[in-house]
Amino acid sequence: MSMEQTALDRPIIPTGTHHLVQDKYLVATNEIIKLYTKVDEWIEDRSPGGIVYGLQRRGKTQAISFIREKLKTKYLDELPIFFIPAKHKFTANEEVFYEWLLQWVGHEFPFTGKKNQKFDRLSKFLLEQGQSSKYKQIVMFIDEAQALLEAHYKWLIDLYNYLHEYKVMLVVILIGQPELKSNKNIYVAQGSRHIVGRFMLKEHQLFGAKTVADLQVCLKGYDTLEYPEGSGWSYTKYYYPDAYLEGKRLEGCATQLYEAFALVRQENGLGGKMEIGMQDLTNTIKYALVKYGAESKEKKRWIDLETWVKCVKRSGYVDSEVSFIVTK
């Protein structure tokens, strides 16, 4: 970034197309970094899998997106990585299950043939992917895995065993809500070692931001991410160009932002220890930039405590916390 840049050099980006507005960006948090370290250990240890669980809006899906990108950077094209998104409704239908997997691993014929043919097509497709890999491994993330039935695990075991016969390791990372941990406990109590031993032996709980330091790590991402890439214009600089050039950084707002969340909690009678979900946190920061930055009618030179409070309220934080208390 050139020190000679001024606010007048601000890039011209069509309204509504900035990556921040379109949510086309990923920022790290302390929790995401911890999870990445854990998942990478599982892969390095050639573990068959593990579970990752946390409350709603804690950023599980965003965390997995970040981790997938980090893994791609580390392993380049030598490690096949597949993400299987949540299915609206799981049923104990083997053929439908194979179709779902075929579709999301990128097979061009997910719906052709009978049940056995679909398993054969899926297993051979993954075998080819694994054998062409330097590491002889395949990583498969399955989202909202608390909805998986026991039958689905049996079919995953069939797939695991097939690949294992050819010395290819299938690593299944199950992502879900706390019910996923409860499901593991039930399988342990039932003595279902064939399920727990393959896919649930490892586990990691994902939390939201709890400290000022947690907020600081996340906020720093907006000070460093650039759009357009390589332009020298970070998200913070783009939305608050004058303040940025004066030395202001979102990273320095961590204490004030923490106070804003605390004030909103107090105002709404939310007790207990504070834990801010990733979705609520990123929504809050996004509103502070978009709704009060350089392109807003209500633009401010910099973000004060009152503005942070408004953004916290708009983020959906209170509704999600109240919902959690009601359903707990």
Q: CATH superfamily membership of the largest domain, which one? A: P-loop containing nucleotide triphosphate hydrolases
The strand count comes to 5
CATH-assigned fold name of the largest domain = Rossmann fold
Strand order of the largest sheet: 2-3-4-1-5
Mean pLDDT level: 93
> Number of helical segments?
14
How do the SSEs run, as a string of H and E?
A: HEHEHHEHEHHEHHHHHHH
CATH class descriptor name of the largest domain: Alpha Beta
Please name the CATH architecture of the largest domain. Answer: 3-Layer(aba) Sandwich
Domain ORC1/DEAH AAA+ ATPase: 50-181
Protein name: ORC1/DEAH AAA+ ATPase domain-containing protein
Pfam families: AAA_22
GO molecular function, one term: ATP hydrolysis activity
Any descriptors?
single chain, 328 residues, alpha/beta, Rossmann fold, 2 domains, 5-stranded parallel β-sheet, P-loop_NTPase, AAA_22
What does this structure look like?
- The structure is a single chain.
- The protein has 328 residues and is an alpha/beta fold.
- The protein folds into 2 domains: 30-205, P-loop containing nucleotide triphosphate hydrolases (Rossmann fold), CATH 3.40.50.300; 210-322, no CATH class.
- It is built from 14 helices and 5 strands.
- It has helices spanning 30-44, 60-75, 94-105, 115-131, 150-165, 179-190, 193-200, 212-224, 235-239, 241-245, 254-267, 278-290, 305-314, 317-327; strands at 49-53, 81-84, 137-142, 169-176, 202-205.
- A 5-stranded parallel sheet has the order 2-3-4-1-5, sandwiched between helices.
- Helix 5 (150-165) links the parallel strand 3 (137-142) and strand 4 (169-176).
- The termini are far apart.
- The model has no long low-confidence stretch (mean pLDDT 93).
